[in-house]
Design brief:
It is found in: Membrane. Residues 1-17 form the signal peptide. The strands form 5 sheets. A 5-stranded mixed β-sheet has the order 1-3-10-5-6, with no helix packed on it. It has a 4-stranded antiparallel β-sheet with strand order 2-11-4-9, with no helix packed on it. 14% of the residues lie in helices and 41% in strands. Strand 7 and strand 8 (101-105) form a beta hairpin. The protein is mostly beta strands and 296 residues long. The protein folds into 2 domains: 26-146, Sandwich (Jelly Rolls), CATH 2.60.120; 149-296, Jelly Rolls, CATH 2.60.120. The chain is globular, with a radius of gyration of 22 Å.
C-alpha cells in the first residue's frame, strides 16, 4: 500500500509543478485600469496577464481594449483571452472588408460574449496571452461593462468600426413586445442589430456573426424596430456598430480614419421600451420590423 502511494505521488508531481510554473508566469493587472507602454519580446513569445474578478459580485460583462500602433499585416499583434469557458481572439491591425473596400485599424475594443453567464463563470479570472512577431509597445485595459443589461433607463454608448458595442435585454414575464430605438447627433453611418442570444456575436475582425433570427437597420441619427418575444426569444443582444464609410446610408464617405485614427467615433443613446398591445400606434413599429429584417 505504501509503495502504491509513493509511486502515485511521483507520477503526478511533474504535472503539478508545470501548472504552478504557468500560473507564476502571469502578470496580475487591476480591473478598469489602463496600462501604457507594455511590451512584447517579438518572435511570437507570449506575454501572459491575469485580471482577478470579484467571485461573489462579478461584472455582468468584461471588455478588452488594446492598442498597438506598430501592428501591421507583416508584423501582426495577437491577443487571446480566456474567461471561464469563453475563448476570444483578436488581432491588430483589425482588418475589415465591406463591399470591396478594405479598412485597417491599429486599435480594438471587444466585449466578451460569455457562453455561460452564471455567477460562478462570470467570476473566473480573465487571462490574456499577447504576442507579436516583432517587439512592440502596446496599451491594454480590461474593463467592466456595468450597463450590459438594458433596463428601463436608456444607455449612452460610443462605438467605432473597430470598437463595436453590444448589450443584452431580457423580456419581463408580462411583456411580449418592445420597441428598440437608437438616436445620435452624429451623421456617421452606423447599424443597429438585434439578435437572439448566441455566442460569438462578432468575429475576430469585429464584424457581426449573423444567426437565423436577427433584425437590423442602418441609420445616421435615428434607427429602430419592434420585436416580439415569440420571434426573437426571451433574451436578445442589441449591437451598435459604425460602418467603415457612409456609402450604405447614401451620404459622402468620411475616409479620414482609414489609417486607424479615431475620426469615426459615434455616440448614441439606446433604449428598449415595452409596448402595450392595446396601443393604436403599435402597428407602426410592426411595419418597420418587417422592412428591416434581412441580411447585412
Amino acid at each position: 500500500m505504501i509503495r502504491i502511494l509513493f509511486t502515485t505521488f511521483f507520477i503526478f508531481l511533474p504535472v503539478f509543478s508545470i501548472t504552478i510554473t504557468r500560473i507564476d508566469e502571469f502578470q496580475d493587472l487591476v480591473l478598469d485600469t489602463k496600462y501604457e507602454n507594455l511590451t512584447t519580446k517579438g518572435e511570437l513569445q507570449p506575454e501572459l496577464y491575469r485580471v482577478l474578478l470579484d467571485r461573489e459580485n462579478p461584472p455582468p460583462a468584461v471588455r478588452i481594449v488594446v492598442t498597438s500602433e506598430k501592428a501591421s499585416q507583416q508584423n501582426p499583434f495577437t491577443v487571446t483571452v480566456v474567461h471561464g469557458k469563453t475563448i476570444h481572439n483578436l488581432a491588430l491591425p483589425r482588418i475589415q472588408s465591406r463591399d470591396g473596400h478594405r479598412y485597417s485599424y491599429w486599435f480594438a475594443s471587444d466585449t466578451l460574449c460569455d457562453y455561460d453567464s452564471s455567477i460562478e463563470e462570470l467570476g473566473q479570472p480573465v487571462q490574456l496571452s499577447i504576442s507579436s512577431s516583432v517587439p512592440s509597445t502596446f496599451e491594454l485595459r480590461v474593463k467592466s461593462v456595468n450597463d450590459f443589461h438594458i433596463g428601463q433607463e436608456p444607455i449612452l454608448s460610443r462605438a467605432s468600426p473597430s470598437e463595436q458595442r453590444y448589450y443584452m435585454y431580457t423580456f419581463p414575464s408580462d411583456v411580449d413586445k418592445v420597441d428598440v430605438k437608437i438616436t445620435s447627433n452624429s451623421e456617421l453611418c452606423a447599424t443597429i442589430v438585434a439578435r437572439r442570444v448566441n455566442c460569438p456575436l462578432f468575429d475576430a475582425s469585429g464584424l457581426l456573426e449573423l444567426s437565423e433570427v436577427y433584425y437590423y437597420q442602418s441609420f445616421t441619427t435615428f434607427g429602430g424596430f419592434s420585436l416580439r418575444k415569440s420571434d426573437i426569444g426571451s433574451q436578445f443582444h442589441v449591437a451598435f456598430t459604425v460602418n467603415g464609410d457612409d456609402s450604405v446610408c447614401g451620404t459622402q464617405s468620411n475616409t479620414s480614419d482609414h489609417g486607424g485614427g479615431p475620426a469615426r467615433i459615434k455616440a448614441a443613446t439606446i433604449s428598449v421600451t415595452p409596448v402595450a398591445e392595446t396601443s393604436i400606434l403599435s402597428a407602426i413599429p410592426l411595419i418597420l420590423e418587417i422592412q428591416t429584417t434581412g441580411s447585412i
